[in-house]
Amino acid sequence: MIHYEYGTPQRIGKFDCSENYVFFQEKKSIRPTFSAERIFGGTVLAMCSNDFICFYNWAECRLIRRIDVNVKVSAFMRTSIGLIVVIASDTSFYILKYNRDVVASYLDSKTAVDEQGVEDAFELLHEMNERVRTGIWVGDCFIYNYSSWRLNYCVSGEVTTMSHLDRPMYLLGYLASQSKVYLIDKEFKTLVMRGDLDRANEVLPSIPKEHHNRGQELLVKQFLKLATIEVEGETKLQREVAEKS
């Protein structure tokens, strides 16, 4: 049996998958005292208002830490130095270390905390004055693109430019088998995600043909509807997904 935990704007629960059966079971619910504009999953659950982000543990939905920053992106990753989280605002991004042992000790003690949570739950490692649009962790490396249309990576606080992009793009993910990072055209993704496939077909010719099928497995995982778009040179993967749809 595979166990997943997830969060939605309405509830927090768990997703269990056993053979061909899928079960949804509510686990806990949170009624925050603020308007939650965004939520992020990962090692812990994060909820954002327009002014701050709050982290909660999954098991009991107890407050771990509140950080006063307007967060647009949040991503956890297990690295060689422990659990690391990136939180990105409109102007900067911050790399913090999650002190799991400190948090576990607090949770076990049942100690009450104020609205700021556990003071030592996170340790600030680096602050970078760049606006992250999309970002992913690849091992100890945080790869991201930002407002200057550059694809960068950050390791131990050192930033290196990988590529200069010719238009706004979204990061999809990383394929370890090919050692490649995949991105998608911003307008194309927006159209597909909102179901405007006719308009997406009109935009498709503006994307170089050599990129039509690259990383298609990642694309399909993001949105199965992509398989219905008429990409030149139908692949086996497209046919399989179309049949499942």
TrEMBL record:
Taxonomy of the source species: Eukaryota, Viridiplantae, Streptophyta, Embryophyta, Tracheophyta
GO CC annotation: membrane coat
One Pfam family per UniProt: B-prop_COPA_B_2nd
GO terms, molecular function: structural molecule activity
Coiled-coil spans in chain: none
UniProt record, GO biological process: intracellular protein transport; vesicle-mediated transport
Name under which the protein is recorded: COPA/B second beta-propeller domain-containing protein
Species of the source: Arachis hypogaea
Domain COPA/B second beta-propeller: 25-185
Chain segments annotated as transmembrane: none
